[in-house]
Fold this sequence. Notes:
By secondary structure, the chain is an all-beta fold. It is built from no helices and 33 strands.
Amino acid sequence: xxxxxxxxxxxxxxxxxxxxxxxxxxxxxxxxxxxxxxxxxxxxxxxxxxxxxxxxxxxxxxxxxxxxxxxxxxxxxxxxxxxxxxxxxxxxxxxxxxxxxxxxxxxxxxxxxxxxxxxxxxxxxxxxxxxxxxxxxxxxxxxxxxxxxxxxxxxxxxxxxxxxxxxxxxxxxxxxxxxxxxxxxxxxxxxxxxxxxxxxxxxxxxxxxxxxxxxxxxxxxxxxxxxxxxxxxxxxxxxxxxxxxxxxxxxxxxxxxxxxxxxxxxxxxxxxxxxxxxxxxxxxxxxxxxxxxxxxxxxxxxxxxxxxxxxxxxxxxxxxxxxxxxxxxxxxxxxxxxxxxxxxxxxxxxxxxxxxxxxxx
Length: 361
C-alpha cells in the first residue's frame, strides 16, 4: 500500500494530513478505538473483475497499517468495536466475524446468506446483526447464539440499541421492529417499502429511520407514528441528530436539515447522496456522496468549505482530536479542530466505536 503525507491545503480549505491507498473499494464508515486506532473494511474491486475478497484493515492515527485480516468475499458491513477491543463485522461469505485487537480471528459464525448489516453491541457484550437469510441474530461475546428472530425479508438494516436495551432495526419485509433484549417482539411498524437504513435514536426516545417508500419516519417509543417527512428518496441513507434535535439526512439528490417537529429546515442539492453525515462539536456537518466531494456545512445549511476526495466514499468518522476520516479506495485524514458532537446520535452507528448504542461514547 502506498502511503502519502500531504502538507498541501485540500481544495476548499480542509488540510489533508495523510492518505492510505488500498487499491480496492471501501465504502464503510471507519471505526475508531479509545487509542485512536482506525478500522476499515474493504470490498475488493468488484467492478473491475477483482473478486479476491475483502479485508479488515487496522491503522494507527498517523496512517500506518498495523495489520489486515482477509476474507474471501466482499465486506459491506462497517466494523464495530467491543469493550475488550474485539472488532466485529459481517461479510458476503455468509459469515459474521470477531477479530482480536491483534488481528487474529477469535471466532466466526455462519448464517444462510450475506451479512451486510453493521453490528450493534449491547452493554452486556451481546452482538446484534441481520442477514439476507431473513433472520436477525443475537450472539453472546463468545460467538454462541443467544436467540434468532425471523422476519419475512432480508435484513441489511444496521440495528440500534436504546437506553433500556430495546433493539431496533428494519427489514425488506417493509416493517420496522422493536425487540426486547430477550428477543421477543415489543412492536412492529409497517411502512410502504423496504427498510435498509440504520435508525437514529433521540434522547427523548423517538426513533428516526427511512424507508424506500420515500419517507423519513419519527416513531415514538410505544411504536406509534409521531410524524413522517416526505423525502421522495429510495436510497439507504441513515439519519443523524444534533444536540438541538435537528435531524440531518441525505436522500437521492438532496441533503436535508429537518426540525424536531418534522418540518424542513433547509435542503442542499447534490448529484447523488449516500451514507450518513457526521456532526462535529462546533456545529459543523460533514457529508458527501457518490460524486466524491466532502462538504462541511453550518447548522443553517450554508457551505463552509468542501474538499474533493476523488472517489465515492462512505460515511465520515470524527476522532476525539477532530481528525475527520473518509474511506473510498483510500482512507484520507483531514485536520479539523473539533471532535464528535455530544448528541444522542451524531454519526452513523451513533459513536466512534460504532456500537449502535445510544449515549455510548
